[in-house]
Amino acid sequence: MTQPGAGRLTPALAGSVSSAGLLFGTLSGGLVADVSSGWSTSVEQVKLLDRFSTSNKSLTGTLYLTATHLLFIDSHQKETWILHHHIASVEKLALTTSGCPLVIQCKNFRIVHFIVPRERDCHDIYNSLLQLSKQAKYEDLYAFSYNPKQNDSERLQGWQLIDLAEEYKRMGVPNSNWHLSDANREYKVRKLSKPIIVGSSKFRSKGRFPVLSYYHQEKEIQSRHIWIICFLFFKNQAAICRCSQPLSGFSARCLEDEHLLQAISKANPVNHYMYVVDTRPKHRMQSWWATQKDIGRIIVRISSKIWNDEKIRESDEKKRLNAMANRAAGKGYENEDNYSNIRFQFVGIENIHVMRSSLQKLLEVSGTKGLSVNDFYSGLENSGWLRHIKAVMDAAIFLARVLIEKDWISFGHKFSERCGHLDGDAKEVSPVFTQFLECVWHLTEQFPQAFEFNEAFLLQIHEHIHSCQFGNFLGNCQKEREELKLKEKTYSLWPFLLDEQKKYLNPLYSSKSQKFAVLEPNTVSFNFKFWRNMYHQFDRTLHPRQSLFNIIMNMNEQNKQLEEDIKDLESKMKQYKKKQADGVLTKELLHSVHPESSTLKDSLCFKEQTLLPVNDALRTIEGSNPADNRYSEYAEEFSKSEPAVVSLEYGVARMTC
Amino acid sequence: ASLRPPRPGAGLGLPARPPPLQPAPRAALPLLGPAASGAPGLPPLGDMEFAELIKTPRVDNVVLHRPFYPAVEGTLCLTGHHLILSSRQDNTEELWLLHSNIDAIDKRFVGPLGTIIIKCKDFRIIQLDIPGMEECLNIASSIEALSTLDSITLMYPFFYRPMFAVTEDGWHSFLPEQEFELHSAATSEWRLSYVNKEFAVCPSYPPIVVVPSSVDDEALRKVAAFRHGGRFPVLSYYHKKNGMVIMRSGQPLTGTNGRRCKEDEKLINATLRAGKRGYIVDTRALNVAQQARAKGGGFEQEAHYPQWRRIHKSIERYHVLQESLIRLVEACNDQTHNMDRWLGKLEASNWLTHVKEILTTACLAAQCVDREGASILIHGTEGTDSTLQVTSLAQIILEPRSRTIRGFEALVEREWLQAGHPFQQRCAQSAYCSSRQKWEAPVFLLFLDCVWQILRQFPCSFEFNENFLILLFEHAYASQFGTFLGNNESERCKLKLQQKTMSLWSWVNRPSELSRLTNPLFEANNLVIWPSVAPQSLQLWEGIFLRWNRSSRYLDEAYEEMVNIMEYNKELQAKVNVLRRQLAELETEDGPQASP
């Protein structure tokens, strides 16, 4: 269900070993051609180790390889599906007495540790996965073979969904799942905003200059999306191409955009400031400003364009430039008047390479067995991850003061490179989108009622960024996406999410309230927490056993059902009375009222809660019963302190009612 | 998202008058004049006793500053037990602060304007700007004197007159006899013993304790001589499911020469089934327990207790905990920390490490009882701190009743108050005090934090919400009620608290209070609840530690929305039921007519 398409495959296979074999039979030959020699479709007696157990607790089962997934079915018939595209790395460890260990790390932060009895088998799986997880061409990605049995017009509709939604949004029809109903309010907010120029320092390949992007008053939601995303993704945004094509290079082409800027300035005679926002940390920024005076000059020129200060003299320009360089170097202005319309803001956001290694460190720490609180926090600190999140948030708050958080759909993010869909330059892979989702999550934590969607929605999007199951996140920019003919060859994710929108709704969402028009998030450090439900989404033993949100969500559903029941009952009463008055009475009438609405019987207690609202095999947790890890944890401490003591690792606590 | 029940007052006007700590102004008015001196037989009230301590009873034009609220100007009054600031403009703007809630004060001067910074035991910090240096100095020294009264009988509970109708006297809500029946009715293996009636056998035990039926009082006296502080093993919890028990005691006084006590061995062996083993959980590290022998203490030797397996789990006590709290609160109060520094400080405080240690040990104890089917004896040195944390948390995990409001009250009464946790000593000072005494330690707060962690992981399994835990924390440190006064039952008896003060439970167990403390999501379940103790699953208790450092408005509103949804559900269900009944009535009325 989480993977809508794969979800449709599952029923055919569910629980049945032989049917899983069927799937393998349906493989398109080319995909696994290299794999065939010696490799059978399944390997039996494979052990799946408990990730956090230090006593090597494991489940035994059978491992299957399909064209799209790696599937493990344990002795309890629980299925663990791993999409090949989700696999970030496969590692074969040294042979042990029980077999050959294979560790698979996934981009959705699942980590599985198999032990394959025969080394030969392990080697085969390893090689197969290496090939299957890194596709060289777009055409090999799952999205191009994935068929959710939609016809062409449905597919097209799916792709148009978001545009349609935008239309609704403009019309203010409050039907969409994506907060589209607040358009008016947002416009209002946007009027208050000032044009902002983001100068950024993405030194990608040789001599490419920072990106410039505008924020302007054009009443096009599209542009706002892009703007918003682009500042969140700051320097990775070499291509903010959709709304502002000319911006791939700064010095060379920005002058061509001056008419745009002029338009802005005309539209906004009240704007007095231009903000120059530098997203780099100060130590990098200062030396950079010193060497990049031409960029400073351009900014000065643009600023003068904006305020129709056409007759700026060379000397003025120089003055401003120097002042700006001084300001950038932290020396401050000498004379405010000359450049009073330029405001600087520096936010220390590191580049993608730092981010990537930061996340790596974070995951290493959180994956440690028998982790102590101190190691966890010092690891959290050393990874710098939350520092980066805070930096991004701080930047967002300064820049936006708009409803950034509600926009997540259209953006010019370089998905394919950043997410490593294809086998390419590892240095270009970066978790910026994960960071964006995490920022949104932090906002939802601070403002539980401001968002129409819930955490599961964020997790689901993250899942599909990497799944390559839908066309939305393939390709690096719109141009590339068009060339790939994504709309003809693949399906869009949004209709699938929309189909399941009930699961992604925040039950506490307050749509009426104006108080969330502008969120003012608190970015004091103590507000930032480790996002356990993202980075340990598959480690269910670490989760709360009862989910508040699911319960409220069920309660909301139940309330709706009850309202229906009441209506039903009332109309029957009416009918009854009428018939009574008429002296006619039919017994059936009463019988048709179901005596106990089934919803009433539902117990809140221990509803097996899921982060992602799924219950099918796709999201099976490794380890059959969620309760057992907790045991092992206490028990491990137990046996550590007192080796002589019999291990207290007992069966499993039943956590159901 | 972490939804928290809203704290009254936190969102409106002055947050300073939450009902539990500050009585309604009217209720406190009697304090202002001798005319209101209480009922017969009660000690004479009045500020006469405090008059010499109050150098300046009243200052005008004082400005109050608190985070997240605009400054308030008003008149500052000092009474024997309260600091009151009321703004002239609006009667609702009134701050009532118990002197006993004040942990430390700082004063400074800028010209004639003096500033007093008041740091409270509940971690709140407020600032008063007082015009006039002399007034300021007087106020500061008065507050200092009034907040550090050394006689318990001068504390506010002895002067407090409740303005609510007492429907149930909390002093009699949880009598040991009743509790014994509730917990042990299933077996005859245990009995009540009155051996400590005069507090002669063990000064820190209550007069009534539960012991194995097969052990007589004479043996208990001998065992008491062998256990630290006379704390012989007593029943803490009886697990009805399998008849296993948790017992607690002080450390055995084996000393360096390996002293033994046959009665002690017999007593704890009496709790074992034939052929079964038990576990002894020592809450000290092995080397600490070994060192204790030099001071006459020690641990149970395998040779003398062959049927018992000993497990050492190190839980910190005393100043280590107090330091941890001080560092944590300091870190939480500094809004300027960058991320690295904040995480570094959070880590260095070690607070969550203590939480994890305690929770892990409690889970282990619960696991022994429920999974292993083994009885367990828990002790550290005295058996009044870490021991009680473990026994009470194990009960939260094992016993559904202790997750209800009354059950939790009973647990606090039984496992903390009667069991002799020295509240008076441990809660004398909080995170801001500079004079650090060895016996001050946030043992009870750590216990509450652990409960909160479990509550977060099982948000539907507790009848109470976070407010209840916060309330207990506040009252343990400063209260108008007598419940947490004294260090043990013996002291409470001598102070005649039952006659002279009001019980916290009398006040809490009224519908108006309970509604604020009740968890709307509660659904009773009879299961053992196993929390995760992984660092990723433990969180800083924001409701306590960040309470005064950030606005909780949006979280409170979300909580209210949640309550509304739940209440709406109840309404709808009631309506559906009514309609069904009406319809059914119509049917029976008309049945005879319709059937022919």
How would you describe the overall organization of this protein?
The complex is a heterodimer of chains A (657) and B (596). A 7-stranded antiparallel β-sheet of chain A has the order 4-3-2-1-7-6-5, with helices on both faces. Chain A has a 3-stranded parallel β-sheet with strand order 8-9-10, sandwiched between helices. Helix content of chain A is 43%, strand content 9%. Chain A has 657 residues and is α+β, with helices and mostly antiparallel strands. In chain A, helix 10 (293-306) crosses helix 11, helix 12 packs antiparallel against helix 13 and helix 16 (432-446) runs antiparallel to helix 17 (455-467). Chain B is of the alpha+beta class and 596 residues long. Chain B has 21 helices and 14 strands. Chain B has helices spanning 25-28, 48-51, 133-146, 176-184, 217-226, 262-269, 286-292, 318-333, 339-349, 351-370, 386-398, 405-418, 423-426, 443-457, 466-477, 489-495, 497-500, 504-508, 511-517, 542-545, 553-594, and strands at 58-66, 69-78, 82-86, 94-98, 102-110, 113-120, 125-131, 190-193, 209-212, 234-239, 244-248, 278-282, 308-312, 376-379. Chain B has a 7-stranded antiparallel β-sheet, with helices on one face. Chain B has a 5-stranded mixed β-sheet with strand order 10-11-14-12-13, covered by helices on one side. Chain B has a two-stranded antiparallel sheet with strand order 8-9. The longest helix of chain B has 42 residues, at 553-594. Chain B: It holds the Pfam family PH-GRAM_MTMR6-like. Chain B: Residues 170-545 form the Myotubularin phosphatase domain. Chain B: Residues 1-29 are annotated as: Disordered. Chain B: GO terms for molecular function: protein phosphatase binding.
